[in-house]
Amino acid sequence: MAKITLSKLRHSYYPNPKDPSDYALKEIDLEWTDGGAYALLGPSGCGKSTLLNIISGLLVPSDGRILFDGNDVTDLAPDKRNIAQVFQFPVIYDTMTVYDNLAFPLRNRGRSEEIVHERVMAIAEMLEVTDMLQTRAAGLSPDNKQKISMGRGLVREDVNVVMFDEPLTVIDPHLKWKLRSKLKELHQRVKATMIYVTHDQTEALTFADQVVVMQEGEIVQIGTPVELFERPAHTFVGHFIGSPGMNVLPAELRGGVAYFGDSAVALEGPVQGQPAGNIEIGIRPEFVSLGDAGLPATVTKVSDIGRHIVVECQASGAKINAIIEGEAPSQGAEVNLVFDQSQTRLYVDGWIATQAQEAAA
């Protein structure tokens, strides 16, 4: 296990990059503590896999350094970094038994059969595959093959980091929840440093203690799942996390007061500085309710998704979602939308520009 430090890291696939748009990864400074569970979250093409490949040694960064426990590994080959990686598609030997697949990484490093047996049995018990240890891998279902692939990554006790590159992509949806839960349980038991790459917010938020949200080669926010949901630092985080995502509404400031259309909107706290740029208000649907007074709006769609009801409205030319419980208004109804002031934030050029009242006090 290791603390991982990324210092002034940048990468371009061009031989002579000239401006920021030439870089697949903009400058990144990041530190992951020993034994933590982390996720890299973002859409396809945001730089997640590039960053993972740099950490694993499959790519050498254009600029910057990678350190494991303070030791510079930037120029070391993958086999010298003492890492384990689990890929999108299971990497196992179909002609071997499950036991031999799990044993292979240890035997390949000359460990005694006593240690091999001890570790294989421990991992097999954690993965709940002890009853199939003598089964050839070719006969396994896709989810069990991926379990074995995970086990091969976890069977060694001496690795610096275990990295997962979208490991549940090929798994049937009804089995994903079970494997996500199993992976979280495994981390809590083995205490290894783990990095999980995904574009699926549910996978990231259920696995990781800290989530790194990426967009276009940049880190836009690092935080716990609760922090990312409750206080998005950027409108992209608000859009990307949550279903439906955060309402982002065009606004303007007049005399220090935020307006959406002709309506003044009370914010969570004071605005930082004198912002100049694209002004927007952000509030999650969970904090929009229907009331006797508030922002006038027209209901355009009602979706009952079981746990709650999503009411889609139009107001001043913008779409606003509200999540409510109980009786829903009908399509076409005129309603009043009430924003929870403590959850109503101002963004300038995408970045949060308001301070919470408690932080400002």
From TrEMBL:
Q: Which residues form the ABC transporter domain?
A: 4-241
Tell me which UniProt keywords the record has, alphabetically.
ATP-binding, Cell membrane, Membrane, Nucleotide-binding, Transport
Sample GO molecular function, one term: ATP binding
InterPro entries membership: AAA+_ATPase (IPR003593), ABC_transporter-like_ATP-bd (IPR003439), ABC_transpr_FbpC (IPR015853), ABC_transpr_MalK/UgpC-like (IPR047641), Mo/tungstate-bd_C_term_dom (IPR008995), NA-bd_OB-fold (IPR012340), OB_MalK-like (IPR040582), P-loop_NTPase (IPR027417)
| Gene3D superfamilies the record matches | 2.40.50.100, Nucleic acid-binding proteins, P-loop containing nucleotide triphosphate hydrolases
Please give an example of a GO cellular component term from this record.
ATP-binding cassette (ABC) transporter complex, substrate-binding subunit-containing
Family assignment? Belongs to the ABC transporter superfamily.
Q: What is this protein called?
A: ABC transporter ATP-binding protein
Organism in which the protein naturally occurs: Actibacterium pelagium
